[in-house]
Amino acid sequence: MLLHPMPHLTYAAEPTLDPLSREKTSLGASYHVEQRYLYKITYHAYPSISFNVAGATEASYRDFIGELREIVSRGTRTVDGLPVLNPESKVLVGNRFVLVRLINGDTVTLAIDVVNLYVVAFSGANNKSYFFKDATTLQLKNLFVDTKQTKLSYTSNYDILEKQSKKRDQLPLGPTPLADAITRLWNGRSVAEPLLVVIQMVSEVARFKRIEEQVRKSITGRNTFTPKGLIVSMENEWSPMSKQVQLSKDGEHFIKSVQLQDDNYKPLIVNDFSTLSRYTMVAILLDQSSRSNIDLAEDFVNNELFNSETAVTT
Predict the structure, then answer these.
(1) pLDDT digits (tens, 9 = 90+) for 51-76
(2) DSSP strand E in 14-106: where?
(3) Which family is this sequence assigned to (predicted)?
(4) 156, pLDDT greater than 70
(5) CATH number of the domain at 48-207, out of 3.40.420.10, 3.30.70.120, 3.40.50.10490, 3.40.50.1820?
């Protein structure tokens, strides 16, 4: 595992230092005095892991995903034997992200938030990095700061990404689609579709061993598979299922049903942890105080509908 430093700027009044002085510490922090203020540039050593598609094996992919799960699960609590990701309030800035290097000759680096396993940014060719439209100040000030940062015209929500490309159940996954996605992200053009590929083959696989199982089979067979009703609904319902597992009073029965679909897109109602585990093989839970991008998208749509109705009636 590599440690990839990311700079972060902090300020402290220090009028006694000479304005032209410059010191370096053993930790790699540098100090600049300008206008009688001390500017301290610290470097967050975010953990970095890599996966090389060329020559990839089922075992190398398993180890890669296992390492990602281990990093995001550090210091977490468990419910029903599953790690619950730490909420934002319990994660220091220096521990907030993990950098994932995907290699196929070109190298793309994904920045993943340990709070929710979201891909929040990536870097590619020509010293450029890309952030979603809803990127936070925290992300912009701590990720890829030595690159030319560019904001995409859309957010990271699945519904939005699909409108920019294709539905997930129309996009094959596997080693070849992943290699193609790396090249497209590296070039930085028409990135919505390759983002859907890497998000599912990294973040969603970390969340669900069911999807990991399918990807590992595709690597062994050198073929592809296309997610259908079950996988897509699992991805959409990760937040609600995480909440129900955590709210269960006996560790088995849910307070509210989790609504999935089978691969024929027929309703699959799940009322207990055993059934959920059998269908999804969920590996990591979102803290119930955190919210998924699906939840936020639903709020956005509801607000838009409310505003539209209000505009019509007033």
Answers:
(1) 999 999 999 999 999 999 999 999 99
(2) 22-24, 30-34, 37-52, 77-79, 82-84, 97-103
(3) Belongs to the ribosome-inactivating protein family.
(4) yes
(5) 3.40.420.10
Query: Which pLDDT belongs to residue 40?
Result: 44
23 is catalytic: no
Q: Tell whether domain 229-303 is in CATH 1.10.560.10.
A: no
Beta strand pairing call for 77-79 and 119-123 = unpaired
Write the single-letter amino acid at 55: G
pLDDT of residue 295: 52
Q: How far is CA 262 from CA 64, 209, 227, in A?
A: 28, 17, 11
Domain boundaries, given as residue ranges, for the chain: 48-207, 229-303
Q: Which of 204, 212, 235, 237 is catalytic?
A: 204
pLDDT digits (tens, 9 = 90+) for 1-21: 555 454 444 333 333 333 333
Q: Residues with Cβ < 8 Å from 296, sequence gap 6 or more?
A: 157
Bridge partners (DSSP) listed for residue 267: 261
CA atoms within 13 A on the CB side of 267: 6
From 288, 295, 290, select the one nearest 157 (Cα to Cα).
295
- The pTM of the full predicted model, rounded to 2 decimals, is 0.81
Q: How many whole angstroms separate alpha carbon 279 and alpha carbon 287?
A: 21
The answer to whether 82 touches 75, Cβ cutoff 8 Å, is no
| Chain-centroid distance, C-alpha 49 | 14
